[in-house]
TrEMBL record:
The keyword Lyase applies. This is Phosphonate C-P lyase system protein PhnK. InterPro entries: AAA+_ATPase, ABC_transporter-like_ATP-bd, ABC_transporter-like_CS, Oligopep_ABC_C, P-loop_NTPase, PhnK. Its main location: membrane. Residues 8-253 form the ABC transporter domain. It is found in: Cell inner membrane. It holds the Pfam family ABC_tran. Signal peptide: none annotated. The gene is phnK. One of its GO terms (biological process) is peptide transport.
């Protein structure tokens, strides 16, 4: 059987801020349809890694190889600016922890979803509006809120609009930074459920940064554990969480189990 080639592969990614080495020599790959979690305590470098591999930030060393829609594998930092921008708008999505970073609060929910379609060349107002209604419905935002601005929505609803905005262009890979962070527990659970359903239905690949092992357990088949900028353990999520090998992972897991 031939192995499925990776969709994205990071090789030796390092990023420093002055004296701080936020991520050091990180390598991993993700295959189509896989959901990879990145866990670790605050400051371990998760967000920096996510920003580097999603081309929001250039690493000091290393490369990120991505299998483009045409089947060709390219280093994302070797793409021209327009190529990279197109990739980020079409084939990739980015769900930020704070919806303010991923939504335009001053325009309607419908426009937030529709403008991603306009950015990829769709011009027919009726089609754009009906796609926006469809996507808002899929994330359980009622159609009668389509003309309201996200800053009139609850945190959970804003996050759902952000998800719709990202998925409307049918990306193959979605980066998520603490997608359920900062929400009430019951809202988190519903959002997680929704995300889990969408990821499965659309056969999405995703890289999910979270400090919450329960989120990782529910969403991710594969898990990487980061500590002080390095990956200390990686493997199948259930294996890593049920039988952690590295002392740091053991500590992380046991700290959650403490009353
Ligand atoms: N723009 C920046 N300038 C300077 N230092 C930074 C910057 N961004 C991150 N750092 C530092 O890099 C290290 C890793 O931070 P990062 O935010 O990637 O960790 P994290 O695991 O995502 O943490 P958290 O869960 O709290 O968001 C930290 O020491 C942080 O202070």
């Amino acid at each position: 059987m031939t192995a499925v080639p990776p969709l994205l592969e990071a090789r030796g990614v390092s990023k420093r801020f002055g004296r701080i080495e936020a991520c050091r020599n990180v390598s991993f790959s993700i295959r189509p349809g896989e959901v990879l979690g990145v866990v670790g305590e605050s400051g371990s470098g998760k967000t920096t890694l996510l920003r580097c591999i999603s081309a929001l930030m250039e690493p000091n060393a290393g490369e990120v190889l991505y299998r483009m829609n045409d089947g060709e594998t390219r280093n994302v930092f070797g793409l021209s600016e327009p190529e990279r921008r197109l990739l980020m708008r079409t084939d990739w999505g980015f769900v930020h922890q704070n919806p303010r970073d991923g939504l335009r609060m001053g325009v309607s929910a419908g426009a937030n979803v529709g403008e991603r379609l306009m950015a990829v060349g769709q011009r027919h107002y009726g089609n754009i509006r009906s796609a926006a209604i469809d996507w808002l419905d899929r994330v359980e935002v009622s159609a009668d809120r389509i003309d309201d601005r996200p800053d009139t929505f609850s945190g959970g609803m804003q996050q759902r609009v952000q998800i719709a905005r990202n998925l409307v262009t049918h990306p193959r890979l979605v980066f998520m930074d603490e997608p359920t962070g900062g929400l009430d527990v019951s809202v988190q659970a519903r959002l997680l459920d929704l995300l889990r359903g969408l990821v499965a239905e659309l056969a999405l690949s995703a890289i999910v940064v979270t400090h919450d092992l329960a989120v990782a357990r529910l969403l991710c088949q594969q898990l990487m554990v980061m500590r002080q900028g390095e990956i200390v353990e990686q493997g199948l999520t259930d294996q890593v969480l049920d039988d952690p090998q590295h002392p740091y992972t053991q500590l992380l897991v046991s700290s959650v189990l403490q009353p």
